[in-house]
Amino acid sequence: MAKFVGMIVFPNAKINLGLAITGRRPDGYHDIETVMYPVGWTDILEIVPSKSGVTELFTSGRRVECPPESNLVMKAYRALDAITMLPPVSIYLHKVIPDGAGLGGGSADAAFALKALNTMLNLGLDYKRLEEIAATIGADCPFFIRNSHRHRHDILSGRHLACRVQHSHSKAGWISFDPRSIFRREILYCSWQGGRSYHTPHFFMGWMPNKRF
Asked: Can 140 be counted among the known catalytic residues?
């Protein structure tokens, strides 16, 4: 493969503008309906040619609990490498978005890694193919390929993923967070008692029409 230059990208968070838990499947996963919206709170992801000849992930910023090989960014690299042989790279991930808060930080990192590698290495994969690959990594990952306001009706496992683009009538806006109020999503799903349960994230604080990020 020809020489290539590195790239820095900024994987952004998303919020759920309301979330409906509609049921629980026999496999233990939940059926959900939600509208996801990208926001301008970002991690920093840099991918450069490896000097050691080995693909490695280096993290900084917020603590990442999983070992590098289990990180979704590395899973993204491995998933793409299984389709088309990739050269070894060094990946530097600076975490800003909290993990496990339903903000999609890890999923965004993986999706942006797929897009960056596709661009850097001139792989020529279109959005549809990248979304298919992203769906094998995590349920939220395909959202960040196009990274646009989207209605999602699927299950948390990411199996049978189906997202419908749903354009907003507003010209975008801004949304602010109070990081102290972020809840862990496990609490939401574990507390579901049946029926159709609606939740509005309590870190949703403001909306201003006609403003862009």
From this structure: yes
Q: Which of 75, 95, 109, 140 is catalytic?
A: 140
Structure tokens at 96: 């800003």
Per the residue annotation, which of 14, 75, 95, 115 is the catalytic one?
14
Give tens-digit pLDDT for 31-44.
777 788 899 999 99
Backbone angles phi, psi at 25, to 5 degrees: -85, 165
pTM of the model: 0.76
**Residue 52 neighbours by CB under 8 Å, 6+ apart:** 88, 90
Neighbours of 193 (CB within 10 A): 6
Contact present, 42 and 11 (Cβ < 8 Å): yes
Cα–Cα nearest to 149, from 213, 64, 68? 213
Measured at the CA of 190, the angle between CA 188 and CA 191, to 5 degrees, comes to 65
Instruction: Report residue 30 as tokens.
Output: 């939940």
Task: Give tens-digit pLDDT for 9-55.
Answer: 999 999 888 777 777 778 776 677 778 889 999 999 999 999 999 99
Q: Give the DSSP H or E segment for 14.
A: strand 12-24
